[in-house]
Amino acid sequence: MTTQPLVNPAASLAPAPQSLPQVVLENLVKEYGTLRALGGVSFDIQPGEWIALMGPSGSGKTTLINILGGLDTATSGRVTVNGQDITRLGESDLVRYRAEKIGFVFQQFHLVPYLTALENVMLAQYFHSVTDESQAVEVLKRVGLADRLEHLPAKLSGGEQQRVAIARALINQPKLILADEPTGNLDQANEEIVINIFRELHQAGHTILMVTHDVDIARNASRRVELTHGHLTLDTTCNFLEQPKLCPHGKPFPSSGCCSTLDSKSCNS
Ligand SMILES: Nc1ncnc2c1ncn2[C@@H]1O[C@H](COP(=O)(O)OP(=O)(O)OP(=O)(O)O)[C@@H](O)[C@H]1O
Ligand SMILES: [Mg+2]
Predict the structure, then answer these.
(1) Residue 1 Cα, ligand 2 centroid: separation in angstroms?
(2) Which residue ranges of the chain lie beneath pLDDT 50?
(3) Helical (H) or strand (E) element with 234
(4) Rounded to an integer, what distance in angstroms lies between the CA atom of residue 167 and that of residue 243?
(5) Residue 161: its pLDDT value, please?
(6) DSSP codes of every residue in 16-71
(7) Atom 24, ligand 1: which residue's CA is nearest?
(8) Which ligand minimizes its atom distance to the CA of 71?
(9) What are the φ and ψ backbone dihedral angles of 219, each rounded to 5 degrees?
(10) What SS3 state is found at 111?
(11) Which ligand is nearest to the CA of 66?
(12) What pLDDT score does 261 carry?
């Protein structure tokens, strides 16, 4: 029996193998009181990768994406984005980091209900200038909404609302797009439209970290990373899909390690 690959093999050629990582997560821990949502997660993200972040409900996916996006803070560990350690940033620097570097797309869209599609996108513009409106129009055209600029969210379908949210995420030309179950509230047809936009963004060189429960959506990504109970338990860069608990050397996989950074010293040999 032939099985489809879990990630897109052509897409996996996209990132330059020798490039410096865009993101480095090192031993990331998040505790809510006595609950350990992340138990020491480490992995790198290369520029231009599309990573599908998977795992059971409660495994820490949203927690990880929120910390990486500067919406939440880690209990310990380090998150370096383009060489900057964001765990050391104060609130005003975090606001700037979020606006300049990150494009967020959420399952629930989070549009402002009394603003039009165009105004929702313009609201997110960080560098204000007289060209604001034309840039916002351009980005809405890019997601196929040229004829919906003046619509309020309530007058848009779920798929259209998510496309406005994607336009909003793109308006400041972020280096990193973080999407938390972006198709979770969409029907099949709109899911396809939204995933096609992400395909185009990936082909244009954007780096994408996308939480999804859907294996078919994950197949579009160039890499799949999986969390279980706050630990990294699978990373397809390692080519050990069939033996997710083993490192590339065939040794037990350390719960707080990352296979992409594993060497013979860090194996539990
Ligand atoms: N603000 C919070 N306070 C206390 N516990 C929290 C908080 N946010 C998340 N948690 C807990 O942390 C764990 C990880 O939650 P998280 O939302 O990251 O999971 P998830 O993998 O995104 O799950 P899902 O697939 O259901 O969205 C869960 O046990 C959750 O209950
Ligand atoms: Mg979640």
Answers:
(1) 34
(2) 1-3, 12-13, 16, 239-269
(3) strand 231-235
(4) 39
(5) 95
(6) -TTSPPSEEEEEEEEEETTEEEEEEEEEEE-TT-EEEEE-STTSSHHHHHHHHTTS
(7) 57
(8) 1
(9) -65, -20
(10) coil
(11) 1
(12) 41
Q: How many CA atoms lie within 13 A of 73 on its CB side?
A: 9
The structural domains of the chain, with segments of one domain joined by +, span: 23-238
Cα separation of the two ends of the chain: 34
| Superfamily grouping for domain 23-238 | P-loop containing nucleotide triphosphate hydrolases (3.40.50.300)
DSSP secondary structure string for all residues of 177-225: EEEESTTTT--HHHHHHHHHHHHHHHHTT-EEEEE-S-HHHHTTSSEEE
DSSP H helix total and E strand total for the chain = 7, 10
How is the beta sheet containing 23-32 ordered, strand by strand? 35-45, 23-32, 76-81, 84-85
Pick the residue whose CA is nearest to atom 7 on ligand 1. Answer: 32
Which residues are near ligand 1 (CB < 6 Å)?
Answer: 32, 35, 37, 55, 57-63
How confident is the model over 159-200, as pLDDT tens digits? 999 999 999 999 988 989 999 999 998 888 889 999 999 999
How much is the pLDDT for 242? 41
Pocket test for ligand 1, best of 35, 229, 231 (most atoms within 8 A of CB): 35
Q: What pLDDT score was predicted for residue 267?
A: 42
Contact 125, 100 (CB under 8 A): no
d(CA 72, ligand 2 centre) in Å = 13
pLDDT of amino acid 126? 72
Ligand 1 centroid distance, CA of 162 (Å): 23
Residues 6+ apart with CB under 8 A from 84: 97
- Whole-number Å distance between alpha carbons of 163 and 186: 11
Report CA(34)–ligand 2 centroid distance (Å). 19
